[in-house]
Amino acid sequence: MEGKKKGSAAIIFLIMALIVIAVMGYFMFKLYNEKAVAEAKVEELTTVTTELSNKSNQLQATIDNISSTIANSTGTSSSNIKYSEITKELDEESALYVTSVEKDGDNFKLKGVVYTKYTVTEAELKDAIANGKMEVYGKQYTIKADTDDSYNLYSDTSEYSVYRISKNSKGAYILVDTQGQNNTRWRITEDYREITISSSTKCSFPYGVDDDEEVKTATEVFGNFKETPTQVDILTGTSNLFYFSFANGKCSALTCAHQSI
Fold first, then answer.
1. Judgement on whether residues 160 and 133 belong to the same structural domain of the protein
2. Domain span at 168
3. pTM score, two decimals?
4. Is 142 found in the same domain as 89?
5. Largest Cα–Cα distance in the chain?
6. Is residue 107 situated within a structural domain?
7. CA dist 78 to 1, 101, 112, 222, Å?
8. CA dihedral for 214, 218, 221, 223, sign (positive or negative)
9. Which of 22, 99, 148, 231 sits 20 to 30 Å CA-CA off 129?
10. Residue 155 domain-assigned?
């Protein structure tokens, strides 16, 4: 009888041991799975973080490139620009657009960029007439003959001409603006210049066709000059655009390019 009791007790302990082992195995398996899932999530988050970091670096590089491009193409005050001195009169189709002025004792140093009159070659005009279209400052315009030596350019949104191409006194075709006072259009170049003038240098501002003009001194014109950014295109009549006259190797006078074609 006592042997049976001992056998029953052993069986009970064996069953309990199996139950304990099964429970421990279950929890160990559960912990292992949870650890594996956690590690997978950590790896996934690490991958996402790396991708976001790479994208952030790419965006920063793009921003830096854009900033660099803007810095390299904005205005004429950049220290990287090299100015050559004006020692004689510019070509009669060119003028200096003054962007900054430095006072130096009784003198003024004018710095700026050269603009040239917007001329159209006969070949360009011929092609435009054949195509019925002409591109000006990146936009397309319809071209129509006005006279034998004059052509009007129209936008698609207006019945009135925006520009006119006319021959000047030297036989060159010049683009003029018809929205204002038929003033000549100018185009920017990459020719940066500087010139030093006396504060007493005369600056003429012609108006109209009757030789009327206003004469000022350089001090009156440039004494309180504020730095001016360049523009893609400008009209004749812009007060910062000047021709230069020389006498005895020095600049003797300035004339604002406020003239007809």
1. yes
2. 119-177
3. 0.61
4. no
5. 144
6. yes
7. 110, 14, 12, 20
8. negative
9. 231
10. yes
CB 188 within 8 Å of CB 233:
yes
Highest mean pLDDT, choosing among 2-6, 54-58, 127-131: 127-131
pLDDT given for residue 67 in this prediction? 52
> How open is the CA angle 70-75-79, to the nearest 5 degrees?
90
Distance CA 213, CA 27 (A): 101
Torsion 34-40-46-52 (CA) sign: negative
- Would you state the structure tokens that stand for residue 191, as one six-digit string? 């020719």
**Residue 138 and residue 230 in one domain:** no
Identify whether the C-beta of residue 190 lies closer than 8 Å to the C-beta of residue 94: no
Cβ-Cβ contacts under 8 Å for 175 (sequence gap 6 or more): 118, 119, 120, 136, 163, 164, 165, 184, 185
- Does residue 141 share a domain with residue 90? no
In this structure, the answer to whether residues 169 and 204 fall within a common structural domain is no
Q: Would you tell me how many other CB atoms lie within 10 Å of the CB of residue 105?
A: 6
Residue type at position 64: D
162 and 43 share one domain: no
Angle at 142 between CA 136 and CA 148, to 5 degrees: 95
Q: Where do runs of H (alpha helix) occur along the chain?
A: 2-73, 122-131, 218-222
Counting the structural domains of the chain, the total is: 3
Question: Considering the domain boundaries, does residue 143 fall inside one?
Answer: yes
Q: Rounded to 5 degrees, what angle do the CA atoms 89, 206, 75 make?
A: 60
Digit-coded pLDDT (tens) for 151-188? 999 998 888 888 889 888 888 898 888 876 557 788 88
Last-in-domain residue among 177, 202, 220 = 177
pLDDT at residue 209 tops 70: no
